[in-house]
Design a protein that fits this description.
With 157 residues, the protein is of the alpha+beta class. Helix content is 49%, strand content 24%. The protein has a single domain, classed as Heat Shock Protein 90 (2-Layer Sandwich), CATH 3.30.565. It is globular. Helix 1 crosses helix 5. A hairpin with a 2-residue loop joins strand 2 and strand 3. The C terminus is likely disordered. The strands form 2 sheets. Strands 3-2-5-6 form a 4-stranded mixed beta sheet.
Length: 157
């Protein structure tokens, strides 16, 4: 029993520290952007793929999700077709993006979705990726992220 309490406390501390780190990084990047000092640097993901990245990204939020008894559903669309999460690692190409900025945006979107979502409800994360061939035969793409919850602002008033 004591080990479980220690593990829960350690998980809570880690989760809070990770969320504070993401929030601080977000504020620093926002400040740099406002000062004109933010340079976007596109890199490949360091994890196995985008799904692995999202699963790892969600870990700091798990305690908040458990406390409110929330579930998160991921929907992945690639080239206009919806796929289940087991196929996505193979379908998504190695995407290059500025993941520092993407993670900061995701942090705020997920935080707000959790905050404004009623107890025992669902948050939906929809990720869409479209490839396109640029004029100089360079393959590029567009990643769209949409986060919705079952709550609404009016319900919270």
């Amino acid at each position: 029993m004591r080990q479980e309490v220690n593990l829960k406390m350690l998980s809570t501390i880690w989760s809070s520290a990770k969320c504070m780190h993401l929030m601080t990084l977000s504020q620093v990047l926002h400040f740099k952007h406002n000062c004109g000092e933010l340079e976007s640097v596109a890199t490949e993901l360091k994890s196995k793929g985008f799904l692995s990245h999202m699963e790892f990204f969600m870990l700091p939020f798990q305690i908040q999700l458990d406390e409110k008894e929330l579930t998160i559903d991921f929907t992945f669309e690639y080239a206009g077709k919806v796929h289940d999460d087991t196929m996505m690692e193979n379908l998504l190409p190695k995407m290059c993006a500025d993941y520092r900025i993407y993670n900061c945006i995701m942090f705020h979107l997920i935080s707000n979705a959790i905050k404004h979502c009623p107890m025992k409800s669902r948050i939906r994360v929809e990720l869409s990726f479209w490839e396109r061939l640029e004029a100089d035969s360079v393959l590029t793409g567009e990643l769209s992220t949409k986060i919705t919850n079952e709550g609404s602002f009016d319900e919270l008033l």
